[in-house]
Amino acid sequence: MIRKWLAVALFACSCQALALQESDTLEASSSHYIRDDLFIFLHTGPGRNYRILGSVEAGTPITVLDRDADAEFTQVTDDEGRKGWVESKYVTTEMSQAEKLPILSEQLAQSQTSLQTTQRENANLRQQLNDARQQITQLTTDTEQQSNDIKRLSAQVESADKDELVTWFTRGGIVAGAGILLGVLLTYLPKKRNRSKEWM
After folding, report:
1. CA gap 187, 179 in Å, rounded
2. Least C-beta-crowded within 10 Å: which of 76, 105, 153, 198?
3. Is residue 36 domain-resident?
4. Domain-located, residue 163
């Protein structure tokens, strides 16, 4: 049984990438995880020859407690409260996919909500813009109509002024002509004779 576990451990070790570089002095931290592409064994000491306490699945959040002198093994506490040693190269500070997924899903939902809100606001703004354009068109039409009315009324007033001026000139001419005619007629009327002159 131990040989089988050792064979699995050796196979897992041969398939992994280079070890992550970390400082020699580590404080206890839960911002570490077991890499997502494997499961590893939890040993009782800093080496493969120590007894295996169990396996830790990929993406499991762990608390880093210590590191051995060669920095090949890291002492951790897993999510079940088990305390043991794992190979340092399988410890990462990158959040596991299992924990990323709900966060990314929430961010996606927020982005979709924000997008829908923005789309509604854009639709409202487009409607307001269309309404404003229609109002501008209506106001332009009304302004042109009022300008035409002003021109027409101005022409009517000017024509009325001319007609009134002609009327005044005509009436003045008639009055003047009548006065002249009356004056001429008065000169031709026979004068009354003075009675005192008749007796002389």
Report:
1. 13
2. 198
3. yes
4. no
Q: For residues 15 and 7, give the distance between their C-alpha atoms in angstroms, rounded to a whole number.
A: 13
Instruction: Dump pLDDT digits (tens) for 105-150.
Output: 888 999 999 999 999 999 999 999 999 999 999 999 999 999 999 9
Calculate the alpha carbon distances from 169 to 13, 161, 165, 172 in Å: 123, 12, 6, 5
First to last CA, the chain: 186
- The domain of 7 spans 2-95
109 vs 75: CA distance, rounded Å: 38
CA-to-CA distance for 44 and 85, rounded, in angstroms? 6
- Domain count for the chain: 1
Residue 167: inside a domain: no
pLDDT digits (tens, 9 = 90+) for 24-61: 444 444 566 555 556 677 888 888 888 888 888 777 78
Strand pairing class (73-77; 83-87): antiparallel
The token pair at 80 is 């079940």
Domain containing 48 — which CATH number?
A: 2.30.30.40
Within a domain: 192: no
